[in-house]
Amino acid sequence: MLNRLKSVEGSLFGVIIALGIVLSLTTDSFLTVQNMFDLLNNQAVNIIFAVGLVVVLVSGGIDISFSITASVVQYVAVSLVLSLGGGNWVIGFAFAMATGLMLGLVNAFLIHKFRIVSIIVTIGTFNLFFGLLMYFTRGRSIYDIPDWLYYRIPVFEFASATLYLPIVVAAVLAFVTWFFMTKIGFGRMIIGFGSDPEAARRSGVNIAFIQAFAYGWLGLCAGIGGLMQAHIVQEVVPNALYGRELDILAAVVLGGAVLGGGRGTVIGAILGVMLLAVVQNGLNLLGITPFAFKAIVGLIILMAITATNIDRLLPKRAAHVKG
Predict the structure, then answer these.
(1) Residues whose CB falls within 8 Å of the CB of residue 18, separated by 6 or more in sequence, listed in order
(2) Does a structural domain hold residue 319?
(3) Of 131, 122, 89, 66, which Cα lies nearest the Cα of 231?
């Protein structure tokens, strides 16, 4: 499995390099420092979402409500800090993380307590959270956000191009996720549960805790991503992240995760995000309709579902032939 995942990551990296070469030869602005930095800055929130989602997918679940969780969190967090007189980064992160974690645990509770398929639960919470958000906010945006959230924070400058705070936050979350998924036993428990839930139950694994952690971690990442989204666009728009969940899902499965659980890496998820970002950026630079990108995302999801089903059917066919 390890060799297979490494080959997936290596293949993705090779495809990104190949696309980069093609686009650098066919466009004038792709291979520039400004464009490379813009790619990283623009994908920071997507990377944050992806490193949270990969934990859920590896555990054998699926969550499509995280983009709406992020939308709810940014509205709640900004409203709370404004009610407290403006707050600061520490308070903003605390509110965002706590609210996102709580909404993620709602998904985990429903999935575990009532034994409902995860995609059904998250479709329900997707619509519930979004409906409540639009009802209470009336779809109004928040333009008067605190100064600490409004002004961008540069962290690295080179050749008149700048990387900003969100990409550093994404890198920290990616490292933390990579560390607990690969360097401690709990990460292996998550992988084991995703690979064979029944065997995990028999071995005494605390299923409720694993599901709470997986969905709670994604909720926490979504909360931070929502705060970073408000920081990037310098306002809070209730439906700004609506529809992004499928792009992130496609990126993570492109990075080696499977919808059946047990497989997936943080590095693969990040490479999947960056590959789709390069494709989208290339289409824009070449003047190709953005609907082509949506078609590519849909194709990736269909291929992932097909590959998962084939993987499940092959052992049965082999056994049938042998019999």
Answers:
(1) none
(2) no
(3) 89
Q: Enter the pTM of the model.
A: 0.91
Q: Beta strand 161-164 with 154-158: parallel, antiparallel or unpaired? A: antiparallel
Is residue 159 included in any domain, yes or no?
A: yes
What does 14-37 look like in DSSP terms, one character per residue?
Answer: HHHHHHHHHHHHH-SSSSSHHHHH
d(CA 226, CA 48): 10
Report if residue 253 sits inside a domain: yes
Q: What is the pLDDT of residues 2-55, one digit of tens each?
A: 455 457 888 889 889 998 999 999 998 899 999 999 999 999 999 999 999 999
Domain span at residue 50 reads 2-311
Exposed/middle/buried for 302, CB within 10 Å: 0-12, 13-18, 19+? exposed
* Rounded CA separation 172/284 (Å): 29
Domain count, the chain: 1
Q: Tell me, what amino acid is at 144?
A: D
89-116 burial: b if 16+ Cβ within 10 Å, else e: eebbbebbbbbbbbbbbbbbebbbeeee
8: in domain:
yes
Site of tokens 């034994």: 115
Q: Could you tell me the CATH number of the domain that includes residue 78? A: 1.10.3470
pLDDT at 301: 74
DSSP-derived 3-state class of residue 164:
strand
Kindly report each contact of residues 137-144 with a partner whose C-beta sits within 8 Å and lies 24 or more positions away, as own/partner.
137/75, 137/238, 139/238, 139/239, 140/238, 141/235, 141/236, 141/237, 141/238, 142/75, 142/78, 142/79, 142/82, 142/235, 142/236, 143/235, 144/82
Element (H, E) at 157: strand 154-158
- Tell me if 63 sits within 8 A of 219, measured CB to CB: no
